[in-house]
Amino acid sequence: MRSTQSRQGQVSTVLARRLGGELLRLRDAAGRTQQQAAESINATGTKIVKMERGWVPMRDPDIRVLCEFYGLDDRKAVGRLLELAKLDRERRKAKGWWRDSLATGGMAEYAAMEDIASQIRNWQTSLVPGLFQTPEYTRALGVSEGSWDDPDDIERMVQVKQMRKERLLGERPLRLYAVVWEAALRQQVGGPDVMRAQLERLLELAELPNVRLQVLPFRAGAHPCIGGPFSIISFAEDEALDVVQSDTVTGMTWVENEMESNTYSVLFDRTARLGLAPRDSLTLIDSLRKGM
Description:
The protein is α/β, with parallel strands linked by helices. The protein has 2 domains: about 5-95, 434 Repressor (Amino-terminal Domain) (Orthogonal Bundle); about 95-135 and about 160-290, Endonuclease, Chain A (2-Layer Sandwich). The protein has helices spanning about 15-30, 35-40, 45-50, 60-70, 75-95, 105-115, 135-145, 150-165, 180-185, 190-205, 260-275, 280-290; strands spanning about 5, 10, 120-125, 175-180, 210-215, 230-235, 245, 250-255. Helix 1 runs parallel beside helix 4 (about 60-70) and helix 10 (about 190-205) runs antiparallel to helix 12. The longest helix has 19 residues, at about 75-95. The protein is elongated and about 70 Å long.
């Protein structure tokens, strides 16, 4: 797992780090040095360092030459690396709304990934998923955090959340599959009035054809995802592997390799099978709403 990194204005992205990690693995397996790799593409050793750490977008010719130099002759494997590079270049050039918003650092990277994703599977333990939050709920979270120097920053955070919700609508709506622990629905963030409106919003969004919402009830007991919340982000392209974003107390981390992301998918599916069916989940949410 790695968090968003930067060096002298160069942004290290999730996709570029994954691609760089693949190239590093190939170089090590081939027994080549960074200087030898650099000479194969007529570059400096510094460029190889930047490529392997995901600090720069990568050119297809460089990737092809390096793959040949490392002895990788599997056309499908090379094609997968080229597709990763293409996706990363497109995302770096994207002029999304998050560029001029309060979404900085890890949140900006997440918003960019969310904007090009085709599906997100989200597991939440203590909060309503961000794409479902009402402005009042988000504002209450910001106030409770207590770390904002400027109250206006809270309002900008609210705006960011509301702008992200547009992905659930429009011509290319995001498919969202959310499994939420019952505790997140009972915790009265902002008080009963705010929470009642939030539960009503959940009921409304759950009716969208691209949204699947399940509740994991208390009675389910111990479960595979008890460790904490995360999101599995999937893309439409066949060669684009899933990436996983996991929340921590101090920020967010990314899972950037196929084996680990597959593990998260398995855990999510197992936990979802312990949850209530979508219709029963809505019945529970409605009963909680009425009791607020």
